Automatic annotation (TrEMBL):
InterPro entries linked to this entry: Puta_zinc/iron-chelating_dom (IPR005358), UCP006173 (IPR008228)
Pfam family, one: CxxCxxCC
Stated name of the protein: UPF0260 protein CH338_27585
Similarity comment text for this entry: Belongs to the UPF0260 family.
HAMAP family xref list: UPF0260
Top-level taxonomic group: Bacteria
Length: 165
């Protein structure tokens, strides 16, 4: 246990490598940001996000349309593991896997905290309504022309928990 308190939620008392399969999967907030195509500058290693979604990304639910078979269908779909998460600098700053690997807590809108899978959308964190194109529809367009900065930003409303009415 991280701090010895059994009363704390699992992500506060366990290391990533100690999570059960169900706990591991529940760390995904369903934002879809990791399913956007990215470019890496070969000289600097800098990552550039685009508004081009993976061909399996559902732009409304922000989930994979074929999650169990995603690695077989998409050659560059990375499998997240407790070992590689700390090294994957392209993971969004809001990503539950990244936050826990960095020793930080989940945001108020994360479904594990809020109890509601729609809060990630309400907080403006998800890609819902923001995917400009899906990779299958690129028709020769250059990915470089689709670079956007919003996937690395945290929307202001996601930083503060709404007050109860």
């Amino acid at each position: 246990m991280r701090d010895g308190s059994a009363d704390l939620p699992f992500w506060k008392r366990k290391a990533l490598a100690e999570f059960t399969a169900a706990e591991w999967e529940s760390l995904c907030d369903g934002c879809g940001r990791c399913c956007l195509n990215k470019l890496e500058d070969e000289d600097t290693g800098e990552i550039f996000h685009t508004d081009v979604g993976c061909r399996l990304l559902d732009g409304h639910t922000c989930r994979c349309r074929d999650y169990p078979n995603r690695h077989a269908k998409v050659h560059n779909c990375d499998r997240l593991t407790p070992t590689n998460v700390p090294r994957l600098k392209w993971l969004p700053r809001t990503c539950g896997y990244r936050l826990i690997a960095e020793g930080r807590d989940l945001y108020w809108w994360h479904p594990l905290v809020s109890g509601d899978p729609d809060t990630v959308h309400a907080a403006g964190v998800s890609v819902r309504g923001r995917v400009g194109l899906f990779e299958d529809a690129m028709n020769g367009e250059d990915l470089e022309d689709r670079i956007v900065s919003w996937p690395e930003r945290i929307p202001p409303r996601a930083k503060r928990q709404p007050t109860a009415r």
